[in-house]
Design goal:
By secondary structure, this protein is α+β, with helices and mostly antiparallel strands. It has 23 helices and 42 strands. Helices cover 46% and strands 13% of the residues. The protein starts with a helix and ends with a helix. It comes from Clupea harengus.
């Protein structure tokens, strides 16, 4: 066995040493000694290696080196510590370890005072102070302090991974990585945090974890001052400033700042998703994404905001949330100066300037700036709506849409205006509202010069100039300028009225209509005319009313030139010219230009008379008929 081989080699070495001493007493000719030395040099120059490893085919000049090497594959550790029982593959490693028990520390650094057990460790440490990196890679010229680090690095270029897992076959460049990996199979987490009790598979992971408790961030960026817990994170961060992306995808040529990002990207091409959820079977390309997903099943949210108490499943989500309270936006666009709270949002924004849309839909050919947008877009073709409301059963393509929808049922409005106290279910709606108080309208229409509070309002307005209506109803063929308007319209065909009044039970197609209706119960009329003092429930009604005082009629008929205060009135009028009567009575077949006229007509068939006289109780099917009747009582 290998242990026996090691003992024999050590015995032979001892015998060779004694033989060498005896040989020194003999007289050899200088010529023979010279020839022997030249032969040794020649063998070193030609790198003669006679002993080959049967596992990985690596060759060695000496059998002893081969035997020591083979321990990597067998995992054999023949040298055991008599104090704690820990085993090692080499005697030198055991001796170094034993100094932990004896407390022996002989070598002290004259610069910082740090003490080391071995001279080699001290020399390696001193290079931190001198900045010396004597070992250079011949392929990429990267320099290292230690030869061992260079050898490990060179495996990146050669692709060599000599350390293979006997359980799953996965191979690694370093033995330490293999040992850490093997703990996935064994479930071993020997390193426990003394603060919170969390157990981790390796010491380096424990040290990184403990920095969460201490708040220690020893690695600082010299450019922007940002600090990090790990040197690797600092190096990756510094590439933001240098623009360096050394890791390139061999399939599409896209370059990345770190190897992990490249590996994640490459799974797009391979379609590989090695991490599967044991609960629902869903697979992920990253272990991190699997762990995030599993919290959906467990409901675990360990990270809580100290300001508002909101809890999150991940620390990164909590940090992003806390920026709402602090107003911090550390990621700034170098082109336009706009700042963002997340790097992801900055990268997405920068594609506006570059015009880059790398992700193309295989069905319709539409190109999008990010993979998440492509996946959402593809649901239009597949009809997939994976996020379902547990209250009413309505399904959505995006999780955030479901969360917003659920606020209808809960009545939750977490975003409150500090000026007037009005609350909103979305932050974007609050920001838009706050411009009412500040008077800010930064978005200007280049066609007519009109200003708007938000870019979405400007986009809606600009369609009035282009008359573009890209969204068509599949039921009746009617086209709309916005998808949201089409969705509201489609409720006419489906009969869906998701917004119900909690006072009287009446249901509405639109939330805005429900809110306007609820003011009937409260009697609230917050919008007052500054000219005549008349108050209204809705701002839109006030604006229509104010046109009576100003005489403004901005909507003109292109056929006869007649002008109107409201666009809806113009549209009704235009049907006189076109003769269009899209609303047909299902009972008698009579057609009408307006839906309201059809509804009034249908009361003839149903016998419905909703307008009742409070004096005599007589009822009418039209409000105009009630007004005529009331004059009888008033005289």
């Amino acid at each position: 066995n290998i242990l026996g081989d090691i003992q024999r080699i050590q015995s032979n070495k001892k015998g060779n040493t004694e033989g060498k001493r005896n040989k020194e007493t003999r007289h050899e000719s200088p010529q023979r000694r010279k020839t022997s030395y030249q032969e040794i040099l020649q063998r070193l120059d030609t790198k003669e290696k006679q002993h080959e490893c049967s596992q990985c085919y690596k060759t060695f000049a000496r059998r002893s080196d081969l035997v020591i090497h083979q321990i990597i594959h067998t995992g054999e550790n023949p040298h055991q510590c008599g104090t704690c029982g820990k085993a090692f593959s080499k005697v030198c490693h055991l001796k170094t370890h034993q100094k932990i028990h004896t407390g022996e520390k002989l070598y002290k650094c004259t610069t910082c005072g740090k003490v080391f057990k071995q001279l080699s460790n001290l020399k390696g440490h001193q290079m931190i102070h001198t900045g010396e990196k004597p070992h250079q890679c011949s392929t990429c010229r990267k320099a290292f302090r230690h030869m061992s680090a260079l050898k490990v690095h060179q495996r990146i270029h050669t692709g060599e991974k000599p350390h293979q897992c006997s359980t799953c076959g996965k191979a690694f460049r370093q033995i330490t990585l293999l040992k850490t990996h093997q703990r996935i199979h064994t479930g071993e987490n020997p390193h426990q945090c003394s603060t919170c009790g969390k157990a981790l598979s390796c010491m380096s992971a424990l040290k990184r974890h403990q920095m969460i408790h201490t708040g220690e961030k020893p690695h600082q960026c010299t450019t922007c001052g940002k600090a990090f817990r790990q040197i690797t994170l600092l190096k990756t961060h510094q590439r933001i400033h240098t623009g360096e992306n050394p890791h390139q995808c061999s399939t599409c040529g896209k370059a990345f700042s770190c190897m992990s990002a490249l590996k994640t990207h490459q799974m797009i091409h391979t379609g590989e998703k090695p991490h599967q959820c044991s609960t629902c079977g869903k697979a992920f390309s990253h272990m991190y994404h699997l762990k995030t997903h599993q919290m959906v099943h467990t409901g675990e949210k360990p990270h809580q905001c100290s300001t508002c108490g909101k809890a999150y499943s991940h620390m990164c989500h909590l940090k992003t949330h806390q920026m709402i309270h602090t107003g911090e936006k550390p990621h700034q666009c170098s082109t336009c100066g706009k700042a963002f709270s997340r790097m992801y949002h900055l990268k997405k924004h920068q594609m506006i300037h570059t015009g880059e849309n790398p992700h193309q839909c295989s069905t319709c050919g539409k190109a999008l700036s990010c993979m998440s947008s492509l996946k959402t877009h593809q649901m239009i073709h597949t009809g997939e709506k994976p996020h379902q409301c547990s209250t009413c059963g309505k399904a959505f393509t995006k999780m955030f849409q479901l969360k917003l929808h659920q606020m209808i049922h809960t009545g939750e409005m977490p975003h409150q205006c500090s000026t007037c106290g009005k609350a909103f279910n979305q932050l974007c709606h609050l920001k838009k509202h706050q411009k009412v108080h500040t008077g800010g309208k930064p978005y200007r229409c280049t066609t007519c010069g009109k200003y708007f509070r938000s870019s979405s309002d400007l986009n809606k307005h600009q369609i009035t100039h282009t008359r573009e209506k890209p969204h068509q109803c599949s039921q009746c063929g009617k086209a709309f300028s916005h998808m949201s308007v089409l969705k509201r319209h489609q409720r006419i065909h489906t009969g869906e009225k998701p917004h119900q009044c909690c006072q009287c039970g009446k249901a509405f197609r639109q939330l805005s209509t429900l809110k306007a209706h609820q003011k009937i119960h409260t009697g609230e009329k917050p919008h007052q005319c500054s000219t005549c003092g008349k108050a209204f429930r809705q701002l839109s009604t006030l604006k229509k009313h104010q046109k009576i005082h100003t005489g403004e009629k901005p909507h003109q008929c292109s056929t006869c030139g007649k002008a109107f205060r409201q666009l809806s009135t113009l549209k009704k009028h235009q049907k006189i010219h076109t003769g269009e009567k899209p609303h047909q009575c299902s009972t008698c077949g009579k057609a009408f230009g307006q839906l309201s006229t059809l509804k009034t007509h249908q009361r003839i068939h149903t016998g419905e008379k909703p307008y009742q006289c409070s004096t005599c109780g007589k009822a009418f099917n039209r409000i105009s008929n009630l007004y005529v009747h009331l004059k009888i009582h008033s005289g």
